[in-house]
């Protein structure tokens, strides 16, 4: 009864099933591992954030370039404050406000963006306290350049002079006349009565929407694998039932092309000897 499994049609179905199931299981396992990596990275960042204040600050050049291992670590740098900018549309503790961003010109010839603090309300240069003069040494959490449109960072353009939507070297290079580090720091102690801005976890480490998308994709791939198995058994069952019906004569396959019995059933045809009489002749 199951010899039909060796037909070319079923060979194709069987090969497809044997390839589809491992692929679905592999992709589901890979998406699950991605989710687990994000969970582990989130736990590491939480631990690092809790211990950030206890670790000694390291020189800036020792922590560059910024990656998941160095993001959030305490960095220190020295130089003189230069151009000051405002970063509007930033929330802190549920309130809207803006960052006060000042470029620290270091001895390397490049400037380090320093978030000196946060102020509530609409971005206004008159509200932002002036930066200290002379040689200063700053200490704060090292952060990677922001990407417009991600994690609450505005991608809007057309801001007033003296403002920037994102803290990134790509955005700042067009606003200041000197080279800028591909990194920034947020001071652990804000200047002049402002509120210190907490460090952010690096991208792809938090339990954000992308993390739960990985978890959702995991379920989808395993559902696909189960669906392939289900459809194979359904096709097999239908094929077996069709063969059984054919053996019992329930499918009509034993009937001839012109009706039951395989003979023509011509409506109005004569029978017996009359059917052999040529037209136009009498008996």
Jot down its keywords.
single chain; 283 residues; alpha/beta; 5-stranded mixed barrel; 6 strands; 20% strand; elongated; disordered C terminus
Walk me through the structure.
- The chain is α/β, with parallel strands linked by helices and 283 residues long.
- The chain contains 4 helices and 6 strands.
- Strand 1 (58-59), helix 2 (60-63) and strand 2 (74-92) form a beta-alpha-beta unit.
- 22% of the residues are buried.
Strands across the major sheet, in which order? 2-3-4-6-5
The span between the termini is 56 Å
Shape by Cα distribution: elongated
> How do the helices and strands follow one another from N- to C-terminus?
HEHEEEEHEH
Proportion of residues in extended strands: 15-25%
Radius of gyration: 38 Å
Return the structural class: alpha/beta
Number of continuous helical runs: 4
Q: What is the number of E strands? A: 6
* Helix proportion: 25-40%
Largest sheet: 5 strands, mixed, barrel
Contiguous uncertain segments of 5+ residues: 254-283
The pLDDT mean sits at 82
Oligomeric assembly: single chain
Quick summary:
It is built from four helices and six strands.
Question: What order do the helices and strands come in, and which of them pair?
Answer:
Blueprint: H1 8-51, E1 58-59, H2 60-63, E2 74-92, E3 95-106, E4 111-120, E5 135-143, H3 169-172, E6 184-187, H4 209-247
Parallel strand pairs: 1-2, 4-6
Antiparallel strand pairs: 2-3, 2-5, 3-4, 5-6
Helix pairs in contact: 1-4
